Structures are given as C-alpha cells and as structure tokens.
Amino acid sequence: MDAPVPITDLAGLSAPVQRWLPTLVPSLARGGVELWKDFTGCWRARARVGPAMVEFTLLRTPGGGILAWPTPMPPQFDGGVPASDGTRWRQYADGSLRAVTAR
User: Fold this and answer.
1) C-alpha distances in angstroms, 34 versus 4, 27, 37, 64, 101?
2) Is 98 domain-assigned?
3) Which residues contact 102 (CB under 8 A, 6 or more apart)?
4) What Å distances lie between residue 26 and 39, 42, 49, 71, CA to CA?
5) Which of 3, 67, 68, 75 could form a disulfide with 83 if both were Cys (CB 3.0 to 4.6 A apart)?
6) Between 78 and 43, where is the model more confident?
7) Is 48 contained in some domain?
C-alpha cells in the first residue's frame, strides 16, 4: 500500500476534517479545532488534548480517507492512528508511515 500524502487543497474537506477529528480524539469536540496551512503548503489542525496542545498534519490515505497525524504522539495511538476510511497507520523507525495490518 502506498503512503499517505499531505492534504494541500482543503476544498470540500474542511467540514469532513472538522467532523473526523473529534471522533479520533473525543476531547476535541469540546475545545474546537483550528485549521491552518503551514509553510510547506500542507494543511494542519491544532487542538487541546487534555493539558497539552496537539498538532495534526492532515494526510490523504491511498483509499481516500483522512489521516490526522498527531504531534506529539498521544499514548492512545501506540497501536496506530486510525484514518476515516478504516485503515490504521504507524510510523516506523525509518520515518515511513505504513498501514498496520490486522492479525
């Protein structure tokens, strides 16, 4: 499977992103989500998760789903970060993002 790619055009995706992030991290539903485009042209989101501010890089999975990659990585994602298309992703030692396969 190919790697997710950064979302550089948010046209038609702003509402799905705003809906997806709170399902990923329920505490985001209370605090809201700020979206912005970084210097590389990639869309990002920022939100408070517990006491910390967490930033998410918004990526499009090969299957067309939205993957919000958190930085720093909260412990609840040790088994991989779920995407809106049902896939789950993990970062490996070489820095690559790869889908986690079901066992």
Assistant:
1) 22, 14, 10, 22, 31
2) no
3) none
4) 28, 24, 9, 17
5) 67
6) 43
7) yes
Q: Two tokens at 52?
A: 């910390």
Report which DSSP code applies to 54: E
Q: Which two tokens stand for residue 44?
A: 């990002």
CB 45 within 8 A of CB 21: yes
Report residue 13 as tokens: 């995706």
Mean pLDDT is highest, among 18-22, 78-82, 98-102, for 78-82
How many structural domains does the chain have? 1
Whether residue 52 is predicted with pLDDT greater than 90 in this model: the reply is no
Question: Could you tell me the residue range of the domain that residue 12 belongs to?
Answer: 5-74
Nearest to 9 by CA among 47, 17, 29, 1: 17
Q: Is residue 66 included in any domain, yes or no?
A: yes
